[in-house]
Amino acid sequence: MATIESIQNAYIDYVLTEGHEPKSVYLFAKNNDMSEEEFYRFFGSFEAIEQNIWAELANKTITAIKIQEVWAQYSAREKALSFFYSFFELLKGSRSFAVYSLKKHQRALSSPQVLNTMKNIFEAFADEILRDGLDSGELTDRKFFTKKYKDGLWLQFGFVLNFWVNDNSAGFEKTDEAIEKGVNVTFDLFQRSPIDNLIDYGKFLVKNGSFKEKMGL
């Protein structure tokens, strides 16, 4: 009897052996001793299989990092770093498929459609850790911009993923470095900066009617 796992494994084996997806669901099902009905019971298309594989990678990563004893003590920045490091460590075991999938669905101006389901999972996770960071005061709540923080994290993830695909260093150590630098820079932007202090000072002066006086006008 076909299962989600058996269909995914058969699909991965096919695309990595042949270099392209099966010509039809009928032929794929027939070659794997199942009916089309069994296939469609689990997936609506071959792309749906790939979307599910990426989603499972994200879910497995989140589950693994949240059961760590130190998770509750982590800052939002540390939680993000934990996800990135753990995800790409897990992805090593599926590198051939990941590279195939991403190169097949390359997009110049947006993330590949095959990552859509995973993106929803990632953004829900990002919302959670960013909210914790805002509540603790680790991150700065900026009008109009705070809701875009998760988009910034997703863009950083996309950058690292593309970097990893092209990383030829031993053990993908350069990807680890890209994660450290990229996530830290992103979170630096989420935290309070001298610009925030300047804006707050300007608001204070305007509110207290002393802006012109302070400016010598």
UniProtKB/TrEMBL annotation:
InterPro entries: Tet_transcr_reg_TetR-rel_C_sf, TetR_C_23
Source species, domain of life: Bacteria
Domain Tetracyclin repressor-like C-terminal residues, every copy: 79-205
Name of the featured protein: Tetracyclin repressor-like C-terminal domain-containing protein
Organism: Mucilaginibacter terrae
Pfam families reported for this sequence: TetR_C_23
